[in-house]
Design the sequence.
């Protein structure tokens, strides 16, 4: 399982990354971990809303949405989130 | 006649508003602000749509901005995600009806057309609109997408609607395309519906 690319979503309003195959994340423990590290988190049960430079949506299946149209910022926030949560990924590849 | 128009920032609602204004109705616009499940772009688009149509028809068309994100969070935390889109629509309708009461409007208007998205099947529209009593006008109901897009291009709203933006992040993976009113009412029974709508109206702003 890994994240391979971060790509501009179809409506061109954000960047998204989806692991293959999909995950089954424990959002409760991720929430606690991020809050303990000082990351603002809103727990919506089926997804977490995070603020890490830009707003980020993290789904239970591992899908990540980075609410920025700046490819560099998307890449930077994605890398930081993967590092904080130990999410496996291939070398960064951003498609605009 | 005075009506309340639900404006999303998409392609359909400004066309529906255009048709109502062209018929001479006095209109009030409502935008359900879906942040943080979207970005600023829907509000910016609605503002630009309205400016274009206000100038064209020389009508003020006040815009009520109603916070919808907190309602979405409540729905996600407490209800069956499968029917999330129908529940979401019911709160939009309720909020719009409250604005209509405040504005002495006699009807509600939407840009819905049959079958375009999950919330626009006949059974889901019925489940959603059962939440309100005012009549609902759907000027686009019999048009297909190509016809609506052609009208949007002609009146100048298409370019605004198709600017980059963010789709609703609260849409479940597999939204129900068929729902029964009983199922929806059961899903909603855990919520304090009036308190939620009261809070939405209390936090509304008029632009």
Sequence:
């Amino acid at each position: 399982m890994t994240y391979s690319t971060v790509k501009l979503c179809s409506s061109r309003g954000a960047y998204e990354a989806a692991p293959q195959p999909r995950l089954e994340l424990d959002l409760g423990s991720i929430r606690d971990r991020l809050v303990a590290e000082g990351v603002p988190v809103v727990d919506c049960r089926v997804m977490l809303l995070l603020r890490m430079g830009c707003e980020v949506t993290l789904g239970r299946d591992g899908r990540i949405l980075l609410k920025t149209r700046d490819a560099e910022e998307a890449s930077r926030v994605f890398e930081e989130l993967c590092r904080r949560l130990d999410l496996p990924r291939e070398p960064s590849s951003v498609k605009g | 006649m005075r009506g309340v128009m639900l404006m999303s920032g998409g392609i359909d609602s400004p066309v529906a508003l255009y048709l109502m204004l062209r018929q001479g109705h006095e209109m009030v616009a409502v935008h359900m602000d879906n942040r943080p499940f979207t970005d600023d772009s829907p509000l910016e688009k609605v503002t630009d749509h309205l400016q274009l149509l206000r100038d064209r028809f020389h009508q003020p068309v006040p815009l009520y901005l109603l916070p919808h994100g907190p309602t979405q969070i409540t729905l996600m935390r407490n209800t069956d995600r499968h029917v999330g889109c129908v529940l979401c629509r019911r709160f939009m309708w309720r909020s719009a009806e409250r604005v209509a009461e405040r504005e002495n409007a006699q009807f509600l208007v939407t840009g819905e057309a049959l079958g375009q998205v999950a919330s626009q099947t006949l059974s889901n529209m019925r489940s959603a609109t059962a939440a309100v009593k005012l009549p609902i006008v759907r000027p686009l109901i019999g048009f297909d997408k190509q016809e609506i897009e052609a009208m949007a291009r002609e009146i100048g709203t298409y370019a605004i609607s198709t600017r980059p933006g963010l789709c609703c992040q609260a849409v479940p993976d597999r939204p129900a395309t068929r729902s029964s009113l009983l199922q929806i009412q059961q899903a909603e029974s855990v919520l304090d519906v009036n308190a939620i709508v009261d809070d939405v109206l209390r936090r509304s702003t008029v632009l």
User: Anything to note?
Assistant: The first strand of chain A starts at residue 6 and ends at 8. Chain A has one domain: 16-89. The domain at 16-89 of chain A is CATH 3.30.310 (TATA-Binding Protein). The interface with chain B takes residues 9-14, 42-47, 49, 55, 57, 61, 65, 67, 69 of chain A (CB under 8 Å).
